[in-house]
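Morning, I've got a small favour to ask if you have a moment. Here's the protein in full, and shout if anything looks odd to you:
***
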Amino acid sequence: MSDRVITPADQEWPPQLNELGPARPVEKLFVRGLPLAADRRTVAVVGARRPTAAGVEATQRLTRGLVEAGFSIVSGLALGIDAAAHTAALDAGGYTIAVLGCGLDIDYPARNGLLKCRIGEVGTIVTEYPEGSPASAFHFPERNRIVAGLAAGVLFVEGGDRSGGLITARAALDANRAVFAVPGSIRNPLATGPNELIRLSQAALVTSVKHMCDELEPGLIWDDPVDLSVNKTPLVLDDLETRVLRFLDDAPVTPDFISGRMDLRPGEVAVALSRLEIRGYAARRRGGYEITNGGARVRRRLMERPDPPRAA
């Protein structure tokens, strides 16, 4: 469909946008793509613009599961968690809505230009700003209330205590929407926002799609697909790789930090990290190395084993 403007008087208008609590009402939307449908069950997925590898993997897994359970996905087309959620929804054959903080004609962020085109063809893009409106810091908190308003619940994956994801989660609470949060390591500053919402009982702790389905669709029978890929092959990690993997977490750590804390030579740590990265158990990030979901599953299996002997 061509670009269009809709208001609360139009049939396409999502009625849930009229229930935003104390937030400023939405008067009109500029829309591109498929029609918005009131009968779609929708979950917002939000989080950090520079997430950890574990955060991206959690977003992809949970988004795919939500799509398979029949939910649509809404997010803000930002870098990081937003882009991962939109992409995972499309790759799973689902429907996704992108809410912009600028005009429909503005490609922001530029790196998501191709993703924006893809959503415009098979999903829907909405904004309350007319063409020519640039992205600005003031627009994004306003955008976030629409993200929350279009959804029955908000999934917060990663973000600090002043992040846009946290703003969206709080907008959802004000609008009487369900809020879910993926917990993270206390060493990971991006876990501060989700962990705090969980601590305050403002968000339900989520590690499985079923946790969200139980609240949003209690009658839905849904089991997360079980990933048996780790269990199909025997573990072949040597003692050094095992020790380093056990030390990794979802907050990046440098090889020098690992060698100092574990009393290992830097060369030994570098070799172990390279092997773990090749196997997909560790990911190299700007701040160092962090564990992946696959690595976390392997580590759980390793926890059943006694600690490997240390070199004399």
Residues 53-68 form the longest helix (16 residues). The domain at 239-302 is CATH 1.10.10.10 (Arc Repressor Mutant, subunit A).
